[in-house]
């Protein structure tokens, strides 16, 4: 099966953790807009003030003041700022989480990174923004120092940053309970979807792998997310199809094949049922 990532620019990651000022990036780019790209690490943008837009997958979010934007590994995004922005961008890899004993379930449970759907920016109050900006300043100092256990210090500040952000939104308390068996099941199911959506389109495929009954898997997904297991699989397929339609020159047939549809008509019918428009119509919008 062709590799979909090969058709989108994959940005390399320089180190397990990296922090940059948005002003410096703007000057390096000489005001030019980015091209759509994807990467295998987490990205956070802390916006003090900016004009322009941030496109994550097929959704456009406009910059303003006191915002936090979150991008998950694998998401396609671009930043367009016609004037010099004020803020920070930091990135961290899954290896950075492992090195600092930060479980991936912490990242998934805080519900800030949303790889399967809309990722709107978080608007924060002035008091919270000052705390976040203070953490950015401390991260900058640590990055430029020769501090022993530098990575550990950055990992601690990262967790505190995300905790402050998570407390600025209303979350589903049930999904935050790491001891709940249903939460663990949902987390495993979503991870399997992200790895196998191109080849596994049926709930039974995932249920057999976990292993659990398809009925119980769907009940758990519906209880915690409001969507059935089948709908979550379909959401992931639709999301990847939209990414490829918008950001590559692959034909509709090639895109369908990339996400596991052997017949172009089956893919087109599936896409239209999910979105209300055909793949070609979506690409032209």
The residue-averaged pLDDT reads 87
Per DSSP, the total helix count is 12
Query: What percent strand?
Result: 15-25%
Helical amount among residues, as a percent range? 40-55%
Largest sheet: 5 strands, mixed
CATH topology of the largest domain: Jelly Rolls
Corresponding CATH superfamily of the largest domain: Regulatory protein AraC
- Count the E strands: 10
Number of domains as seen in the coordinates: 2
- What global shape is seen? globular
Rg from alpha-carbon coordinates: 20 Å
The quaternary structure here is: single chain
Ranges where pLDDT stays below 50 over 5 or more residues in a row are 1-6, 171-177
What class would the helix/strand composition place it in? alpha+beta
Q: Can you tell me the CATH class of the largest domain?
A: Mainly Beta
The ordered string of helix (H) and strand (E) elements is: EEHEEEEEEEHHEHHHHHHHHH
Q: Kindly report the spatial arrangement of strands forming the biggest sheet.
A: 1-3-8-5-6
CATH architecture of the largest domain: Sandwich
- Termini gap: 28 Å
Explained architecture:
- The chain is α+β, with helices and mostly antiparallel strands and 285 residues long.
- It has 2 domains: 4-171, Jelly Rolls (Sandwich), CATH 2.60.120; 177-284, Arc Repressor Mutant, subunit A.
- 47% of the residues lie in helices and 16% in strands.
- It contains 12 helices and 10 strands.
- It has helices at residues 22-29, 94-99, 104-109, 126-143, 150-166, 181-196, 203-209, 214-225, 229-247, 252-258, 264-275, 279-284; strands spanning 9-10, 17-21, 37-38, 42-49, 53-56, 59-62, 65-71, 76-80, 86-92, 122-123.
- The strands form 2 sheets. The protein has a 5-stranded mixed sheet with strand order 1-3-8-5-6, with no helix packed on it.
- Strand 5 (53-56) and strand 6 form a beta hairpin.
- Helix 4 runs antiparallel to helix 5.
- The two termini are 28 Å apart.
- 28% of the residues are buried.
- Mean pLDDT is 87; it is low at 1-6 and 171-177.
């Amino acid at each position: 099966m062709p590799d979909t990532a090969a058709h989108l620019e994959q940005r390399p990651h320089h180190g397990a953790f990296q922090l940059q000022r948005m002003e410096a990036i703007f000057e390096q780019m000489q005001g030019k807009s980015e091209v759509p790209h994807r990467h295998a690490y987490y990205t956070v943008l802390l916006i003090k003030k900016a004009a322009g837009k941030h496109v994550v997958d097929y959704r456009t979010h406009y910059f303003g003041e006191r915002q936090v934007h979150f991008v998950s590994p694998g998401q396609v995004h671009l930043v367009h700022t016609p004037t010099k922005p004020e803020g920070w961008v930091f990135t961290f890899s899954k290896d950075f989480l492992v090195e600092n004993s930060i479980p991936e379930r912490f990242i998934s449970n805080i519900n800030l990174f949303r790889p399967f759907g809309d990722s709107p920016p978080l608007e924060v109050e002035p008091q919270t923004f000052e705390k976040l900006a203070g953490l950015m300043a401390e991260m900058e100092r640590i990055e430029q120092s020769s501090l022993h256990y530098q990575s550990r210090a950055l990992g601690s500040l990262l967790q505190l940053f995300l905790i402050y952000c998570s407390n600025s939104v209303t979350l589903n308390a049930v999904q935050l309970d790491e001891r709940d068996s249903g939460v663990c099941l949902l987390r495993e199911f979503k991870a399997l979807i992200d790895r196998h959506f191109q080849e596994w389109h049926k709930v039974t495929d995932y249920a057999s792998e976990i292993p659990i009954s398809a009925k119980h898997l769907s009940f758990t997904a519906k209880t915690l997310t409001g969507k059935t297991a089948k709908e979550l699989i379909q959401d992931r397929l639709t999301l990847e199809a939209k990414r490829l339609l918008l950001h590559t020159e692959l034909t509709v047939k090639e895109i369908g094949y990339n996400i596991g549809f052997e017949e172009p008509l089956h893919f087109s019918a599936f896409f239209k049922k999910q979105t209300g428009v055909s793949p070609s119509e979506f690409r032209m919008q």
